[in-house]
Amino acid sequence: MANAPDRIALAPGLDISRIVTGLWQVADMERDGKLVDQEAASTAMLEYARAGFDAFDMADHYGSAELIAGRFLTRVAQGEAAGAHRPVALTKWCPTPGPMTAEVARAGVERSLRRLGVATIDLLQFHWWSFEHLAYLDALKELDRLRREGLIRHLGVTNFDTAHLRVVVKHGIEIVSNQVCFSLIDRRAAGEMSAFCLEHGVRLLAYGTLAGGFLTQRWLGRPEPAGDEINDWSKMKYKRFVDAAGGWPALQAILTALDRVARRKSVSIANVATRWTLEQPAVAAVIVGARLGERRHTDDNLKVFSFALDADDRALIDEALAKTTPLPSDCGDEYRKAPFLTASGDLSHHLESTPRVYQATPVEGRPGRLRVSSGSAFEPIAGYSRAVRVGNRVLVSGTTATNGPDEIVCRGDPAAQTTFILDKIAASLAALGASLEDVVRTRVYLRDAGQWEAVARAHGRYFGATRPANTMLQIARLIGEYEVEIEAEAVVD
Predict the structure, then answer these.
(1) d(CA 49, CA 62)
(2) Strands 283-289 and 360-362
(3) Which secondary structure element, helix H or strand E, spans residue 360, and what is its range?
(4) Of the ranges 14-18, 312-316, 418-422, 474-478, which one carries the lowest mean pLDDT score?
(5) Beta bridge partner(s), residue 407
(6) Which residues of 340-357 are buried (b: 16+ CB within 10 A; e: fewer)?
(7) pLDDT tens, 345-361?
(8) For the chain, the helix, strand and coil percentages under 3-state DSSP, each to the nearest 5
(9) Alpha helix locations (H) across 95-191?
(10) CA-CA distance, 288 to 158, in Å (whole number)?
(11) Cα first-last separation, the chain
(12) Are 389 and 433 in contact (CB under 8 A)?
């Protein structure tokens, strides 16, 4: 067995163990209103760190996790031995969508700084609930300013799909990591996401690697659980993943293959499942959850670094994976669209309560007519609206990748600009009681027809199921430094 976990430089000055201890389950432990004993929990963190598992992942909404980590870091600073390396706290800011001003971003970061008791957050990861709300870009720009100010050492994102990670990176924001679900059950990150990250120097932090414990010996050969056996948030969530990936028979096929590999290597099923994810090229580390003070798996986790998968192992696992159903869409979509693969299930009520980006206003003197302004500096000058609704018909003006009054988003990247434009169109439609599913026609204007495929693929991600009528053409010149402009028409049934 390895004496210590392998390590990796996630970013300059940020060295972490390749298994990160996740503190999500603190929230589950506290869901009945009883707070976790911070002293006892911080002692459990010291034990993990002494074993070499000295990187801890948490978030501002994981119950008392940041406070517990703060107590742990204080004890380390006071001389209680932690391990051979400086412990690292990775946290997340998950704000409610709304105006993302400098004050809002600073308040979110300073709250975590106070709770952790540190002057600088090693890695601040940003989560955003709905990309239809375009302020995520404003939030990340403000976080990037705080990074340059020294309050944040490195900036990452969590649950961003590939298209929106592209928007962020191509807009020039320095992102070192994207934390996404990645396991033998959920292999969405193995495709386009990994390719983009490898090309642009972004590393993946993989959570859900053991699928809430379903990818362990406990469930091999067991009947499908029900009732009290699914009694914590983690199992509630990942049982939905199992069902979407082909159900209990598909899971049993994977467990059987993992068991055969595990017996060859004299390790556990969990070790093999973890090793498979760690060996994915874009993955820097996996996050394995801990119930602090209840159970500790450091000895078993160390075995992950005592072996590697060979060609025969991978062939056996691939044969089992061929019996599963690939999960739909891209990373993070489980929080934003059906099927909602989360602990609480359907999140549509949560998303519907998100404040609208734009507000519809009546057109004076024209009863029944509504319009939307996006705040573009040119709208009042040229005398037009971003979108207008007349009866059940909604018309959206030619839209470019403009953020706020005049900021050009992702200069030179037509795919990223298309993503931002279609989010902006979606927000305009929503303000007028419509959605992308109501769109019956789009028109796409390109600066360079040679870029048609990247734009078409981005368009297809939004309209692949709806398939409105579409025209795409190159025109002599777009106004401004834009690669693409799109207009849309919708009919609300």
Answers:
(1) 20
(2) unpaired
(3) strand 360-362
(4) 474-478
(5) 403
(6) bbbbeeebeeebeeeeeb
(7) 666 655 566 778 898 88
(8) 40, 20, 40
(9) 102-116, 136-149, 162-170
(10) 16
(11) 63
(12) yes
